[in-house]
Design goal:
Blueprint lengths: L5 E7 L2 E14 L4 E7 L3 E6 L2 E5 L3 H13 L7 E6 L4 H6 L7 E6 L2 H10 L1 H4 L8 E5 L2 H6 L6 E7 L13 H10 E10 L7 H14 L2 E8 L7 E8 L10 H8 L7 H7 L5 H8 L1
Parallel strand pairs: 6-7, 6-9, 7-8, 9-10
Antiparallel strand pairs: 1-2, 2-3, 3-4, 4-5, 10-12, 11-12
Amino acid sequence: MTDIATWIDEYHKGSRFGLNGKVLLRKNSKYQEIIVIENDYYGKALMLDGCWMTSLRDEKYYHECLVHPALTSIDDKSHVLIIGGGDGGTARECVKYANIAKIDLVEIDEEVIKVSKTFLKEIGGEAWSDKRLAIHIDDGVKWVEKTKDNFYDLIFIDCSDPSEFSNLLFKDSFYKECKRILTKKGILATQSESPESFKDIHINILKTLKKIFRASETMYSFVPIYPSGIWSWTFASKEELYLSKPNCKEALIIEKGCEIWNLNFQNAAFKMMPNKIVKELNS
């Protein structure tokens, strides 16, 4: 740790995406390097293995977009699985829904949770003490493989970019297992990378989910500290998706407590696919 302001950068394809501030923590867990920096504008921010994960200022751009399109669109949502999500933001958005009975959060790196609870308390908030939340320090791929059929109503994949220990979360076999453990009308919601900075990975996710699931739709918005800023989330189901026609009564209540997401924002975001992505998906 140091009291001297310094730059911490994510390097990506000849570009740097950096924050300047006081380094509050720099350590290595069993799986990765963890850095927490405090910036005057973005507040406290978390970097894992050289990649920005979240910051206090812009985290709602990510977490609200991942969670609410799925949760406001289906009625039966008693049992939820979060894979990753060690900062607590996805869990925080999930506990806003009264009819969720159980949330299993499966995070492989316990240190991410410990660091988030210490330095990024505002992100997880009261979700960490919610009795419906069960935390499991485990491999998300293995957790899914040992789960029985038709078990979860929602699966949220809140993982980092592909790396040595997260690559399996982007494989066809993993998505097929997710489909198996989803209920008939259940929804898989995953961050699906940037159509700009991670174009090839993004397209592969979209093509794979379209092949495996009956229905899939992709939403685009912005996460300012991520490379290129533009990001995506993809939703898939065994049945039809009704993401543009959510449960309006509950949705209107939920959106009052949101900073970024609302129904107008969501409906526009599902129409933002860049044309170069459309062309590649149709080729």
